[in-house]
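Attaching the record inline, Q. Sequence:
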Amino acid sequence: MARKKQEKQLIELKIESIAFEGGGVAKSEGKVYFIKGAVPGDKVIARINKKKKSYSFGEIDSLLEESPDRIAPMCQHFGLCGGCSWQQLKYHKQLFWKRQHVIDSFSRIGKISNCEYLETMPSPRVFHYRNKMEFSFSGYRWLTEAEISSDDDIPNKDFALGLHVPGVFNKVLDIHDCYLHKISVPVILKKIREKALEYGSKPYNIKTHEGFLRNLIFRSSEYLDEMMVILLTTDPKDDADSKLKNWFINDFPNEYPEIQHIIHATSNSFSPVAVGEPYIIRGTGFLTERILDVTFRISPFSFFQTNSSQLDGFIAQILSFANIQQNETVWDLYCGTGSITLPASKKAKEVYGLELVESSISDANENRELNNINNANFICSDLNAKNASDILSALPKPDVIIVDPPRAGMHKNLVPAILEAEPQRIIYVSCNPATQARDCELLSDKYYVEKVNPVDMFPHTFHVESIAKLFRK
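Structure, as predicted:
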């Protein structure tokens, strides 16, 4: 006899706080509940989806009382797509909770006390702030509850152009509106979608490795107010693909004369990473951005910080914490394309930027030459390697180390190398306060954290950057 499907538990909860990953947090009878979409102050009936011994996960079944901090989200796709997670929370409260998450990480994980926590630096722009958006084509469109429950036929359910649904790697939500990039983006999304459907060109399938359309990427420059549109595909395989490619190369530029840079890029790689060989249809093939009077050229697929409107304030605060003097030597570890290294070079005697990715080092050297900077040195090196200490000991001894590692934090091989270098000051920049706090504790034998400044680079998400200033004891 088949087992009857168990109904999911419903429970009344008062939301007390918000978790680092974005869900509301409630406590009841000694158990913790993480409720998707809830904000502190909400009173809800929650539907529990997953139970553990001491905590459970769920979502709002009904909202009994709205928190005074709750607002109506701007975007029709909010709650489904992975672009935003906090549009229903007032912006000043987003800043409050980001600071609180940093404090919690440093006190609980890093066991750090007597530290000054500055207020979260707000983003100058809270909508249309991203300088890069990467949309995906997919043959597996995420269907909304309204579509599923409707008796009508669902059109184009095997075609999507939009953003991935969180937790579902192969499903893409068709996006018709977006408040993250430039206002013109939805118009272009609609046009590309219509043309692909008209010609019958198929999305690339990551399992079968068949199909033509991979990604549609938008990049922009705050400095020159320019936009770049990149269509990433495989090589054309049939007449439909060739027609769409020819339309994009020949007709699309005439329909959108306001777009300064248009690129068709190809990739036949099995990798899902949106990188390809660019063919320039219009423009120079790169964008120009400025940080603290340093000019950066950004090629189609190179990394650059995503919130241009926040960059001057963010980098300026890093350099303020570093307090670099003209006779001092600085190491910038995980330097990327030099977005911190090159502004720092204007204050220092000598700066050394180290990074594993060769293309980033190449871009950093080009930007150094573009700005006629002679005291910045870029080295392609693996800071996670077993010989990290040998790599760094070959450099001139630093007065200041700036370190900006990936989300996983500093590798265990790097920590002793920094302790051996014994700089007077360490400025630790991170997009993950949990690993940042862990690493600061690992440095605590020789260093203490004086202050930490959270920075909001991604409004309406739970993500937070933070800058920690450490002094040698």
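The mean pLDDT is 93. DSSP finds eleven helices and 23 strands in the chain.

More tomorrow.
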